[in-house]
Amino acid sequence: MSRPQPQGISADLALVTGLKSGDQGAMAELYDRYSSVVYAVALRVLGDTGAAEDVLQEVFLQLWRKPSAFDAARGSLRTWLAVITRNRAIDSLRKRRPETDIEDVVLSVAPDLAGEAERARAAEKVRGLMGNMAPAQRSALEMAYWEGMSHSEIADKTGEPLGTVKTRIRAGLIVLRKAFQT
Amino acid sequence: MSEHERYSEDLALYAVDALRGEERARVHEHLAACAACRRELEQLRGDTALLALSTTGPRPPQRARQRLLDAVAREPRVPRIVETSPRRSWWGVLGWAATAAVVIFAISLWRENSVLKGTLASASSQAAKSAREMEELRRIAAPILEPEAQRVTLVAAKAPPQPQGKVFYLRKRSSLVLLANNLPALPPQKAYELWLIPTSGAAIPAGVFKPDAHGSASVVDPALPAGAEAKAFAITVEDEAGSATPTMPIVMMGAGE
């Protein structure tokens, strides 16, 4: 979503290794690679440029402090940063202490989206899938993911039973998963 | 419905942080024991990543880059943490008289207890008392003796002679022993306080203590919440009544693996 990154994941690994030895140049390089995605996610959650910039700052500082929290065996740095950023932005939105330590955010990602065009296509596909979901399902998933609402808050807001909300959120995620399974 | 299936919907909620309170704690606890659910959680987080990555927006303002790099330049590097390999025999790790005394005391009482159980089988009340004592000892000594207990060495960042603390923490029993040496003397009405730094949430008080004239101190089996997962341990100086939250600075700190 930013400039082309011909060096890809192996370069990410080298840069993260650089962080471990205190290389500030590696930090600058990683910022140039991923600040756009981090900022976009933070802004989507917070809707406020100042607050999004604060989260951007916090996410990269966390990476600087704990580069070993990123497990390269489990997917790309881009993906991990996107998930960490969403979590931190939600914490900021809900004005709560961080609920999950970055070291605990382990994820596995099926699609390995190396190129800019491929990522753009994937993002478009996700937006299409969301658009095709039943409105109640899409909205339950969005309220949970982008607004950080608990399942009981969603149930209160929509007037639906808790069990229905639970099912909708899980089923929504599975729809995304299946669309990317080869 | 299998246990795994029972948790499947809650795992999706957990992956998007939509669970609160007890429900969240229950899933958290289950995850600690269930590899299949941990894998499913990783998968679900991967699914949520698709959502996150579908977002596009403007670039961050130019000033943000310099702000970050300035902040990075100001950041102290992480203090050196001396870790003790959990695989190393604790005999090799524990060189101290205090530790040896605790262990020898525990083992001798265990043996004594076995003898008592054999010879006083008919004296049921004594045997029951003895069994209670043994259980108590087993509980106290478990974090020292059981191989799976976390063993963490805490060191001060500077200043010889080096104060040292060793924490033995057995999460499944919420049982902990701290043994510390070379601690600096405290100002009047102050005490040291040990903190369990959990993997998420606020620091948990894990005992208030004062060193003796030689700078040695111990904490045995402080009150701890059940199953708290420890990321690190730290020691601060507090009023002697203890505190609910740590007062900076941290004087000693250590993390396990």
Supply database-style keywords:
heterodimer; A: 182 residues; mainly alpha; 8 helices; disordered N terminus; B: 257 residues; alpha+beta; Immunoglobulin-like; four-stranded antiparallel beta sheet; 8 strands; flat
Shape of chain A: globular
Oligomerization status of the protein chains: heterodimer
How much helical structure, as a percent, in the residues of chain A?
55-70%
* N to C succession of SSEs of chain B: HHHHHHHEEEEEEEE
Count of individual helical segments of chain B = 7
Biggest β-sheet of chain A, characterized?
none
Radius of gyration of chain A: 17 Å
Computed structural class of chain B? alpha+beta
Largest interface: A-B, 77 and 51 residues
In total, how many beta strands of chain B? 8
Spans where pLDDT lies below 50 across 5 or more residues of chain A:
1-7
Sketch the major β-sheet of chain B: 4 strands, antiparallel
Question: What is the 3D form of chain B?
Answer: flat
Mean pLDDT, all residues of chain B: 76
Q: Per DSSP, what share of the residues of chain A sits in E-state strands of 2 or more residues?
A: under 5%
Give the CATH topology of the largest domain in chain B: Immunoglobulin-like
- The number of E-state strands of chain A comes to 0
Explained architecture:
The complex is a heterodimer of chains A (182) and B (257). Chain A is an all-alpha fold. Chain A is built from eight helices and no strands. The radius of gyration of chain A is 17 Å and the shape is globular. In chain B, α6 packs antiparallel against α7. Chain B is flat and about 65 Å long. At the A-B interface, α2, α3, α4, α5 and α6 of A face α1, α3 and α4 of B.
Summarize the structure.
Chain A has 182 residues and is an all-alpha fold. Helix content of chain A is 70%, strand content 0%.
Helix-strand layout with pairing:
The complex is a heterodimer of chains A (182) and B (257).
Chain A: H1 8-20, H2 24-46, H3 49-65, H4 77-93, H5 116-132, H6 135-147, H7 151-158, H8 162-180
Helix pairs in contact in A: 1-2, 2-3, 2-4, 3-4, 6-8, 7-8
Chain B: H1 3-15, H2 21-33, H3 35-53, H4 63-74, H5 90-93, H6 97-119, H7 124-145, E1 150-155, E2 164-170, E3 175-181, E4 190-198, E5 204-209, E6 217-220, E7 230-239, E8 250-255
